[in-house]
Automatic annotation (TrEMBL):
Residues 1-30 form the signal peptide. It comes from Flavobacterium dankookense. It comes from the Bacteria. InterPro entries: Beta-barrel_OMP_2. Pfam families: OMP_b-brl_2 (PF13568). Residues 28-217 form the Outer membrane protein beta-barrel domain. This is Outer membrane protein with beta-barrel domain. Keywords: Signal.
Amino acid sequence: MSMRNRRFFSKNTNLFFIIFFLVISLSAQQKEVDFDAVDSLYREDQFYVNVSYCTLLNQPDGLNQNKFSPGISLGFLRDMPINKDRTIAIAVGLGYSLNTYNQNLLIEEVGDDYTYAIFPEADGVSYSKDRFSFHTVDLPIEFRWRNSTPESYKFWRVYAGFKFSYLFYDQYKIESTIGDRKISNNKDLNQFQYGTYLSVGWNTVNLYAYYGLNPLFKSSAKIDGEALDISALHFGLMFYIL
């Protein structure tokens, strides 16, 4: 190759690379994401935090709750719209809950079994703490209606759900004048729990209610010869965070 051809080749090669990188640069600028653009295919994927008051249904005679019993849940829900306006959706999630129940049930361990009775309060006999604590992994499934739009994160919502829960740790703790004790992983408890819930509100803060559909205890747990058939009812607030 002659010197003249080498210079021509070098100049054209340099020109080619200049044009190539210029085109790439312009193309990249055109493909930059416009973060202010409206997303018509939006989802309401949400982290949630729920704070509740935990009550017990189907209480046997003499059983009562005399202190505030708090519960907290948190997790994430994946939103799957099923209509064109994206105002109706199904959501599936994963979460964690800690629910506590302050009450006056006395549980005693007898060998590998447990006995259940109402705490025998009398002169000089009392308790300062009597509480269940349930730790669960939750699988919520929701049917969602909202009047949301792509432009606004503030809207009315009605979310009805069904929740499966797996009880992976539980503790019963009592402190009383007749002794203190702790019982963990009670085999009489139902490890699989489920129920329905409803969340209704505006924007971030929503009213929340959960109704347990199966008993907390198995039929093996008896009090005065009858099955301890108590179940859960929770009232509180649900916070959805995008």
